[in-house]
User: What shape does this take?
Amino acid sequence: MTVTTIKPDSAAQAADAVRWALSEGTPLDVAGSGSKRGLGRPIQTAYTLDLSGLSGVVAYEAEELVLTARAGTPMAEILPMLAERRQQLAFEPQDLGPLFGRPEGQGTLGGVVASGLAGPRRISAGSARDHTLGIEGVNGRGDLYKGGGKVVKNVTGYDVPKLMAGSFGTLTVLTELTVKVLPAPEDVRTLLLAGREDAGAVAALTAALQSPYDVSGAAHLPAAVAARSHVRAVAGVGGAVTLVRVEGFGPSVTARVAALKEELGADAVLDRDESLAVWREIKDVAFFCPLPNPPPLTQGRELDSLPRPAGEGRGGGDDSRHSSRHVWKISVQPSEGPRVAESIRWALDAELYFDWGGGLIWAAVAPTPDAASAIRGALGTAGHATLVRAPEDVRIMAEVFHPLPDPVMALSRRVKESFDPCGILNPGRMYAGV
Assistant: This one.
């Protein structure tokens, strides 16, 4: 199929494009840079609405902790600008481009909000929807409209901005967004616990999260995954690694790390550079990426002397093996995480790791026809699973997003019809007919 790209450079032109599509009865594949095009069901249409031309920061009020930018503004422009003012998007937006074999740094603000994804700090700071204050966009009727505002107290009625987060462009063509920013932590340290099995690791993470020490990251890397880290203090353990992150002002971080190290029996503490590097790997699912990761940042002094099993070196593993694997994002009750992981390993050829204190499992699974049923069968009613990476022919046929109960699906259809009654915007991206 020949695909024609429509690239507006203003909100008015985006509205014209939607009105044209509506008059022609032809659907639009709504996209920004396309860095997450591999996530979701493929769109069957001859026209792509490319929003990358809607780029630029409209207003950055650092003192008010508010940023307004057009939807196609690259995150590679936004994040350094925030860092200069020692600020951040606290939900840690993921860069999944490399997971799909694309260069890093190509995501846009609109894509970040539309996908609704968040990194390890999700457990303490919330997700993208919790930081989205206002939106401007074009609905499926071709109407330009606004929702929300620059501060939470200005929001009345339905909270449309939060509805857009995670809608994958099926409800509105986002043209401009206002998001909340927060101060970046002055310091960060990570406690490392070596050699814990899944159940013991999740128990330690739960204890850390329930402690009064304000933990902002809690993850567990089984041995095969930890070995592929480019942080040598992690890969050099030669076994499973459990990680607990503490952020904030320097003296506070020092005191909290000391207390947690004693309570958890941690084996080492990663410094700032090591911490930033390993949590970036965890955030961006770098362990399952087909492209090479950045080179090692540190030598891992504290763990160089720890023994490693024979045949296991630092940063080992066959990266090419993971490019052909399907990648699943599995949300589960943390207490059920080890059981679900063991069930998946028993049924499938799978490697996985835990984030969010055991409440999120990332799994790289060898392709088999029964993988989806095995994973969702292992979950039962304990959570849900999303197929994040797989070839297009698989995603056309598969239930990429977790099946919804009938009442929830009926509600989703009504919401879709209210914003896009003719099904013009990204039809079927999430669910068939929605």
Observations:
- The chain has three domains: 1-184+404-434, 187-303, 324-403.
- Residues 293-319 have pLDDT under 50 and may be disordered.
- The chain is about 30% helix and 25% strand.
